[in-house]
Amino acid sequence: MSSPFGSAGDGKDFPRYEPTNHPEDRPDYGLPSYGSYNAGGNAGYDEQPQGGVGYNGPVSATKAIGWAFRTVFSNWQLWILGSLLMLAVFGIFGAVVGFILASNGDGNAAFTGNIFSNVITQVISLLVSLFVMRLALFQIDDLKTGWSYIGKDVRWGNTFLMLLIIALVSFVVMILAVMVFGGAAFATLTSADVQDEDAALAAAGTVFGILAVMVIIGWLVTPLYKLMPWFAADGDSIGDSIKKGFMAGKANYMQLLLYALMMFGLGIACIFTLGLGLFIFAPVSLLAEAHLFRQCAGRYVQA
């Protein structure tokens, strides 16, 4: 279509601007390149370590516990129902074992059976820990974590070995401490011919005092090894798990102590719910510990 006005008002068309191959003729000239819509100029979710960028904020036990509560209620189909199912299974197992032992009149057989059942329970608990620790880490990485994630990509060997090492070392240290500091008191209590009631009471007080001191020392030392199994569950080797776990525990000692204290308080509060709060407390403590581990390790966590 011709223009009614020319450059000189004579009704002739203006000269047409023909396209060229100059850079300034491109529609995106002068604009930054943002990459495709899917990438957004950054690495995708799966390309980031642990599914996202590493955590570089301050380590916070309250943040971990708050996230755990929100997650338990938002994904209640997995965590609350799973907690109910697990407690029911352990309850049925304990009831069956108790019935079998009670129906056996032989005291020695009952004692042996009780030891055997305790060992089996501890082994089952250890194996269950491998599943739920990995599941908690999946929950941090993927909001869609559900029942299908159970048993997926579990680090069986290193995690099991790390938990076993900690359990054995703790047991040996406890036995040695009792033998060194409370050997005489235990000998008095277990003596068949003890006649002095005052001596027996004094020995009992000594034993309970030693146990109380050991509990306090254990609480103070726990942060130094608490994170080691989590490093193993997250894919680190045994050596790296011990080294990184100790260093991370040392660097974040106070927050780990605060976490233990807050969990103790929540556990006491469960008593006033007639035990019903355990169905929430159990998954909350697991998820909060996983979140706190990721914070201490500087790895991906959800806000």
UniProtKB/TrEMBL annotation:
Protein name: DUF975 domain-containing protein
Keywords in alphabetical order: Membrane, Transmembrane, Transmembrane helix
Record-annotated membrane-spanning stretches: 78-103, 115-138, 159-187, 199-221, 256-282
UniProt key word Membrane: yes
UniProt biased composition (Basic and acidic residues): 10-28
Highest taxon listed in the record's lineage: Bacteria
Region described as Disordered: spans on this chain: 1-30
Organism: Corynebacterium accolens
